[in-house]
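Trying the structure run again after the queue cleared.
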Amino acid sequence: MNFKDRRILVTGGAGFIGSEVTLQLIKLGANVTVLDNFSSGKRKYLPKSNKLRIVKGDIRKKELVRRIIKDHEGVIHLAALPFIPDSFFYPGEFFDVNTNGTVNMLWNAIKTKTVETFVHISTSEVYGSAQFVPMDENHPTTPHSTYAVSKLAGDRAVFTLHKENGFPAVVIRPFNSYGPRFTEPYIIPEIINQIIRGTKELTLGNIHSSRDFTFVEDTANSMIKALQEKKAVGEIINVGSGNEIQIKNLASKITKLSKRKIKIRYDESRERPYDVNRLICNNKKARKILKWKPKISMDKGLLFTYKWAKKNPIKFSAPFKRWYYKN
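Done. Tokens:
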């Protein structure tokens, strides 16, 4: 797909990954509509451009989605309730948004005659902890959280509706992403924020777990490639760096950026119940079908992120209770 003057809808386009997707699409010449309820996304993260239209709204609203989606040729569906600890307290809301909202988006895309490709953004969390490494698309799906189950249900709905209707859809499963403009207290923002607040001792949960991190520019680029690559239609594609790092080693890397001596302390109260212990991506399919590979190294990406966070301090707030807060 040549993106010049093409009309692309990005749900959740003001969020962490969504804002980067939006920025890259506009640079490619696309006309982008962002649909976001701004529960975590921020308008200030969006570029100022006459090629950008912003709609505040909910992906569950049938009439709204029907009205907006009909004028677009491509959809990248990122909108979701994303923060795992919240899902322990509000499972119904997570299924309503992440599953029913996805069905509403795709069904209305199917009923239009303009949408050529629908890219649904899943998560590596649907796999649960690694049973073999690196984890490819045939890895068993044994989700460890309500969030992950709600996302897997959305994946299955997308795949089934794609088959039943012959509609071009793609499922992208990113492993952990990081970078500037973060919107949730994921592990890297949490570590950085503790350091910026001047702590002398980082308090973290499962420091022996390991994750596969990809810089947000690379993650976003994979989604855009999925929108234009016809061979991706009907496929589930993992996106990750192919490298893993233990959280304690990740914390050490970030503390070195601060040029301060900071201890790392395990805090049992910060552990999630039934947490995923290990994630590492097999990205061969993304490399082959999408012609994609990560370009930003972890050291370079962490430096970008740390510098951005120092200039843009964030006090996290959320629509839902954080499980580790005592109220």
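The chain has a mean pLDDT of 95. Worth checking whether this holds up in the mutant runs.
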